[in-house]
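Appendix B. One record, verbatim.
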Amino acid sequence: MSTTTAPERTTMNGKPVHFRNAKTVLNLDSGFRHKRLCDGPTFSAGDACAYSCAFCYVEAMTHKLLRHDHSELKDLDHMDIVVRRKDAVETLRKQLLALPDAVRTQQLTLYMSHSVDVAANMDLVRETVAACEAILELTHWHIRMLSKSNLLPNVAKHLLVKKVNQVSDVKARLIFGVSTGTLDDALAAAFEQGCPKVSKRIESLHWLQDEGFRTFGMICPSLPVRDSYQEWSLAMMDAIRATRCEHVWAEVLNVRGKSMIRTCAALHAAGYEWQAAELQRVSTDKAAWEDYARKTFLAHACRTDLLEPTTYKTKLRFLQYVTKETAQWWHDHTSSGAIPLGAAAIH
């Protein structure tokens, strides 16, 4: 497998590809630190994903940037394009080499990627491998990778076989996770357009666990549950083998930009009328939204199989954007895994 930057293809996963000349791909002080997904550093090789998830919030983060820098993107829907950062791996290496040794030798965890999937196709797998090689070679950092793909084992296999520049602890420095808020392949396909089946993602996670790689869970986005939140949580935790995950992140739908409108529309179009109507209901009623979020959280928080066997602290890391009215409740549940986010969060 070649480890060069992904080739400048004109299409990717059926969408046109645009490249932009980004000065940076590495952010040392990312807000994802507050989500405890990293210790500050994040890496991203793009700004618009090869997948087309209806709930994607990246457009709200990059809209001004892309429209300002690229007039040709002005009239294009963010969901219909792939935006790559040109020469991403070379830029990463330059940024890493420019860092003081004191930073590069710290035991930090880097998160990839906050804006695009790292393994949406084999070209991106190769690019991710090359990025990981640079990080493993030039730093002492650990790398947390999240994907909605089933191709993460390809990343793991190549990095393990190569033993990057004789780095002996490759396996110990990689942490893999796949995300899903449902185990229903058809339901997931309704609002995670273009992504591999959930069942295939879970299979890939099991392979990584069986091969001794470090893993984490990511149960999101979680839609309202029609029957029992506890039974749904049990099924999710069993599926990802929560006892074999280092941590389990979870979240309801992250509402930014048009994410809620698109998700409701996608569910309706696919015939999931109850889910569409319920999501619409909770999105227009603050009390209903809070009830939905708390039920989701409490279903996970009551699980004793999420306790770390040595410290008996919870593995759960539940992400919730709070308001002035709700912040105290979530703050009071931080010992059970709640992570209050947003300007109103109590720190």
